[in-house]
């Protein structure tokens, strides 16, 4: 799964306060905004889908 040291430095890209993300199976979840980000091949995909561009 994901490296604990990597998880430590990950923060939600959608929240200004950059809260830490919590791993839930094959996703990283932000408790603040409720977004979840998929972990693909051990690499978290932190793209924010905002519908722009
Ligand atoms: Zn968030």
Explain what you see.
The protein has a 4-stranded antiparallel β-sheet with strand order 1-2-3-4, with no helix packed on it. It is globular. With 53 residues, the protein is α+β, with helices and mostly antiparallel strands. It contains 1 helix and 4 strands, in the order αββββ. It binds zinc ion. Zinc ion (ZN) is lined by residues 12, 14-15, 19, 30, 32-33, 35.
Query: For the terminal residues, how far apart are their CA atoms?
Result: 32 Å
General shape: globular
Bound molecules: zinc ion
Q: What is the string of helix and strand elements?
A: HEEEE
Helix count from the secondary structure assignment: 1
Structural class per helix/strand content? Answer: alpha+beta
Structural domains: how many: 1
Helix content: 10-25%
Contiguous uncertain segments of 5+ residues: none
Question: What integer is the average pLDDT?
Answer: 88
Please indicate the percent range of residues in DSSP E strands (runs of 2 or more): 15-25%
| Spatial strand sequence of the major β-sheet | 1-2-3-4
Biggest beta sheet summary: 4 strands, antiparallel
Number of strands: 4
Query: In angstroms, what is the radius of gyration?
Result: 11 Å
């Amino acid at each position: 799964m994901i490296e604990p040291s990597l998880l430590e430095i990950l923060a939600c890209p959608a929240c200004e306060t950059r809260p830490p993300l919590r791993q839930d199976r094959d996703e990283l979840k932000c408790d603040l905004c409720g977004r979840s980000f998929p972990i693909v091949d051990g690499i978290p995909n932190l793209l924010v889908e905002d519908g722009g561009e």
